[in-house]
Design goal:
The complex is a heterodimer. Chain A is an alpha/beta fold. Chain A is built from 14 helices and 13 strands. In chain A, the strands form 2 sheets. In chain A, strands 3-2-1-4-5-6-7-8 form an 8-stranded mixed β-sheet, sandwiched between helices. In chain A, strands 9-13-12-10-11 form a 5-stranded mixed β-sheet. Chain A is globular. Chain A starts with 20 loop residues before the first helix and ends with a strand. The model of chain A is unreliable at 1-12 (pLDDT under 50). By secondary structure, chain B is an alpha/beta fold. Chain B folds into 4 domains: 6-186 and 479-521, NAD(P)-binding Rossmann-like Domain (Rossmann fold), CATH 3.40.50.720; 205-285, no CATH class; 292-341 and 356-391, no CATH class; 404-474, no CATH class. Helix content of chain B is 48%, strand content 10%. In chain B, the strands form 2 sheets. In chain B, strands 3-2-1-4-5-6-9-10 form an 8-stranded mixed β-sheet, with helices on both faces. Chain B has a two-stranded antiparallel ribbon with strand order 7-8. In chain B, helix 9 packs across helix 11 (229-242), helix 20 (404-413) packs across helix 21 (415-433) and helix 21 crosses helix 22 (444-454). The longest helix of chain B is centred in the last third of the chain and has 24 residues, at 345-368. Mean pLDDT of chain B is 95; it is low at 1-14. Classes of the chains: A alpha/beta, B alpha/beta. The interface between A and B is large, with 85 and 91 residues.
Chain lengths: 433, 522
């Protein structure tokens, strides 16, 4: 047995004999379905253990599992980004955290735990946003695995990796493996930017978030949720002015709960509870260790297969439903030629000639395959409406009431941008008769 | 089998106050299985045989949500190979220590509320000297158990219906299988996504009367735009029936005409409640009857031969059978769960009250058919889920292998599933034949011979068999971290469903191929 050295010393040789007995059965021999290009033996082991550099986005429910799996599989240079700190409600599944860690950054605690538990693995944490990092940063990795709970962050990461692709430089193509879970359900997929369907291509597969019309909330509440929305959307700003609502602050939740419960009582609506209040205002998605384990394992298995070529990787989507038995579906999600991120073709839209700019913005926010919050619109020659900076917003605001047909000729292009997305969307507008 | 003790409930969700720290810790899972599921988990006692990477992965996902107790039965000491692939060992520093003790210690750190115990006896010893002990657990899980021992264990646990279910887990490299051996599993809270019927086609008197009393013509315009669609549909259907010999619309043209009537009632173009009524019109010609799956339950032998000692589930089903037979309109009892719909607060709340009052009446009637006392919470849950009850009847581990016609059928109908199952079985029988301490020699030829022997004479191996068996030869003893983690998640998920009696566990074997990232059941 070799001697132990500091766990965060990447050059340390702590590979005791037998350490990779299990993994090496795969890496020593090809299987019947292995690609002939697979070079069994020391070469592939060397790449995996000494060269491969992998980035994990998220150190939460999926992230904790992903980090542990990667470390045991033999990846030794792992980076992890997460902007969150640990909350007590994470402890039912985020198994690298303990009660004493509550309040600490997830990325840092997770990295330390892995390095302590799996000798010789170096995990470099970054406590912050993915948007803080530039292309050079992302260029250094061979692979990216995402364990995120936000659509916005996935779109950003996906678009960034698609933009990174330089046809002249094969190294610039970074496979992105994306996992997601909700209760007993989940999915894992492999995205080869510019080659396979990307995250943006499949945006219309997402469930539409439940949104309650403001008139229902204000005038005709029927469900406990309507009362809670009334408290958080209308009453909070009315009573507290500019003071920001913090959904992690029990006092704020307590206030919302009381206000919602009082309204429910006025309207004889039953079912407003503390737990429901918290669930609605934080948009809580149920989460358990087992589903995260399944999806993270599927993601890491793809990372291992891609990094080693020891077996074919997933083409390209795995969906799991565990509520009634074990149902899974593996299929190839098709690319969208008019995908704003990887497609290149402008998206054709047909609108009525009297459609206003404001209506068009509303449509862009609502449309299932677009979903752009706060879009800014321009044509190649003029600005139609800009959300920021304030001076330009003010200058373009009068256009909101104008008809699109007054500003854009039939067949003309509109470029849509949003500060949250690192890409722009081209629309080709035609008018219905 | 230690059943869930509802009286020992510790997790209660208090509506008014901020949750306590335990409820906060379990918040994300309580939203899936509520306090009742949590109590069942906390009362459970699990036995896991062997402390492999797969075993500890399963346990991790059960300790985190808070099972009551687990025991790892394993006499082995940690080898350098174990230390490399098991997250619940501390690398080289665990080598030479007892694997069960190390794993229990490190799994215990995940949750203070869970009791863990290492038992250093061998399964062989327990089967010989202390087999009753095995039957005292809620569920027993065994990973890659030697075929002879597995046979003895599964036979023992099958002896009596009250003995714990056995989860058999097998894996090699990228391939895996798991199976739950149980006699019977009844689920009330199946969390079905199908909603129960609103019974618009068979309206109860108060609903019919109120719908008939509405003066659509002379109503205030605002009120008219806020009539819940339920009233609209009941009213239009009743009038339709009067002119159609009491029948609902049946042909395509009739349905179209029916929808036209609804749309024609609008006073303003943007009355969304009438749009909703049009969209929901199918409820008028979808007859509210007892679903065939529930009807089949009524014929279950245990329902037919009910005794005072029968489990409450069968008493409830028997009462349901009588209720639906004798009480008009011969449907399942009404539930008070109403979907949201365009309506004013008052009209919606009063509709909700009508449904609630009627649901209470029907529940009281339903209760009168019960011949043994059943607690109210169970009755409430039963009535609410009467349309989605589930009764699974399991088989003994190995039943498929002893059923020649099922095997022959599976060659055609589930070749991928059968290939993985057969190649893992072939590996298992081959290992049993070799010397216990000699290194395992596995060849394609030897496995093919074993697999062929498992099939009825003259049956061809399934078409994907070569692919499966080739992977087994490549990695016959590999407990890969990713395979272990995936199995850990899937097995734990099924165990949670078994313990909580919520959601529906697998019925049969689940096969996993992590090359194609594929799962199948058969």
């Amino acid at each position: 047995m070799s001697t132990l050295s500091l766990p965060n010393d990447a050059s340390a040789t702590v590979d005791w004999p037998g350490r990779y007995y299990h993994i090496d059965q795969i890496l020593n021999t090809p299987g019947p379905r292995t690609d002939p290009a697979f070079l069994a033996g020391d070469g592939v082991k060397g790449f995996l253990r000494n060269e491969a550099k992998i980035l994990v986005i998220g150190a939460g429910g999926l992230g904790c599992e992903i980090l542990a799996n990667l470390a045991l599989t033999g990846f030794k240079d792992i980076h992890v980004i997460d902007m969150d700190t640990i909350d007590i409600s994470n402890l039912n599944r985020q198994f690298l955290f303990r009660p004493k860690d509550v309040g600490q950054p997830k990325a840092t605690v997770a990295a330390e735990f892995i390095m302590k538990r799996v000798p010789g693995v170096k995990v470099t944490p970054y406590f912050g946003k993915i948007q803080d990092k530039d292309d050079d940063y992302y260029m250094q990795f061979n692979l990216v695995i995402c364990g995120l709970d936000s659509v916005e962050a996935r779109r950003w990461m996906n678009a960034t990796l698609v933009n990174l692709v330089d046809p002249e430089n094969p190294e610039s193509l970074k496979p992105m493996i994306d996992g997601g879970t909700e209760g007993f359900k989940g999915q894992a997929r492999v995205i080869l930017p510019t080659i396979t369907s990307c995250y943006e291509c499949s945006l219309d597969m997402l469930n539409k978030p439940t949104a309650f019309p403001i008139c229902t909330i204000a005038n005709t509440p029927r469900l406990p949720e309507h009362c809670i929305e009334w408290a958080s959307v209308l009453e909070w700003p009315r009573v507290h002015g500019d003071k920001k609502m913090d959904t992690d602050d029990p006092e704020h939740i307590g206030w919302l709960y009381k206000v919602a419960a009082a309204r429910a009582q006025d309207f004889k609506i039953e079912g407003v509870t503390w737990s429901l209040t918290q669930g609605v205002v934080k948009n809580i998605i149920p989460a358990i260790a087992s589903t995260n384990a399944i999806i993270a394992a599927a993601c890491c298995n793809e990372a291992f297969k891609i990094a080693t070529s020891s077996a074919a990787y997933l083409n390209n989507y795995f969906m799991l439903i565990g509520t009634d038995g074990v149902y899974s579906y593996t299929f190839e999600h098709e690319r969208r030629l008019d995908c704003p991120v990887c497609g290149g073709e402008a998206l054709e839209i047909v609108i009525a000639p009297d459609f206003t700019v404001e209506q068009m913005i509303e449509m862009l926010v609502e449309k299932q395959d677009i979903q752009i919050k706060k879009p800014s619109l321009s044509t190649p020659t003029k600005q139609i409406y800009l959300q920021a900076p304030p001076q330009l917003e003010e200058a373009t605001r009068p256009n909101l009431e104008k008809k699109v047909s007054e500003l854009v000729p039939p067949g003309g292009e509109i470029t849509v941008t949003a500060s949250t997305l690192p890409f722009s969307l081209s629309l080709r507008v035609t008018y219905s008769l | 089998m230690a059943g869930p003790d509802i009286d020992a409930a510790t997790t209660t969700i208090v509506a008014e106050a901020p949750p306590d720290s335990k409820t906060r810790r379990y918040d994300r899972q309580l939203r899936l299985w509520a306090a009742s599921g949590q109590n069942a988990l906390e009362s459970s006692r699990l036995l896991v045989i062997s402390g492999t990477a797969t075993s500890t992965s399963v346990l991790k996902n059960l300790v985190l949500p808070g099972i009551g107790h687990f025991t790892i039965l394993d006499p082995a000491k940690v080898t350098p190979e174990d230390a490399g692939n098991n997250f619940f060992l501390e690398g080289p520093s665990s080598i030479g220590k007892f694997r069960a003790e190390e794993a229990v210690r490190l799994l215990g750190e995940l949750n203070d509320g869970v009791e863990g115990k290492a038992d250093l006896r061998s399964l062989e010893e327990v089967l010989e000297k202390d087999k009753d002990w095995l039957t005292e657990f809620t569920i027993v899980i065994a990973h890659n158990l030697e075929a002879g021992l597995l046979e003895r264990l599964s036979a023992l646990l099958w002896e009596d219906e009250s003995f714990p279910p056995l989860v058999v887990v097998r894996s090699a490299g990228f391939l895996a299988e798991f199976y739950i051996q149980f006699h019977e599993h009844a689920v009330i809270e199946s969390h079905s996504e199908t909603a129960s019927s609103l019974r618009i086609d068979k309206p109860f008197p108060a609903l019919l009367d109120y719908s008939a009393s509405l003066d659509f013509e002379n109503m205030d315009v605002t009120d008219h735009g806020h009539i819940p669609y339920v009233y609209i549909l009941v009213r239009v259907l009743e009038e339709w029936k009067k002119s159609h010999n009491g029948n609902p619309p049946s042909s395509y043209d009739e349905k179209k005409e029916f929808k036209k009537i609804i749309v024609g009632m609008k006073k303003k173009i943007d009355e969304e409640n009438f749009d909703e009524a049009e969209a929901q019109a199918y409820r008028c010609w979808t007859s509210s009857t007892v679903p065939s799956e529930i009807r089949a339950l009524f014929q279950d032998p245990k329902v037919k031969s009910l005794t005072p000692k029968s489990a409450p589930f069968f008493h409830l089903v028997a009462a349901l059978a009588k209720f639906t037979e004798e009480q008009p309109p011969n449907t399942l009892p009404l539930t008070s769960t109403l979907p949201d719909m365009k309506a004013s607060t008052n009209s919606y709340i009063s509709l909700q009250k009508l449904y609630k009052a009627r649901a209470e009446e029907e529940k009281t009637l339903f209760k009168s058919y019960l011949t043994v006392p059943v607690d109210d919470a169970t009755i409430d849950a039963f009535v609410k889920n009467a349309h989605a009850l589930k009764l699974l009847r399991g088989k003994r581990w190995g039943a498929l292998d002893k059923n020649p016609s099922a095997l022959v059928a599976a060659v055609e109908s589930a070749p991928k599933q059968l290939s993985i199952h057969l190649s893992l079985s072939a590996l298992s029988s081959l290992s049993t034949k070799q010397q216990p301490n000699a290194p395992l020699t596995v060849t394609v030829e030897a496995l093919v011979a074993e697999a062929q022997a498992l099939l009825p004479a003259g049956t061809d191996l399934p078409e994907n068999f070569a692919e499966a068996v080739g992977e087994i030869v490549r990695a016959p003893t590999a407990d890969l971290p990713n395979t272990a983690a995936l199995l850990g998640g899937m097995v734990a998920q099924e165990v949670i469903k078994m313990i909580t009696k919520q959601y529906i566990p697998i019925d049969g074997s689940c096969l996993i191929d992590l090359i194609e990232t594929w799962t199948g059941v058969f």
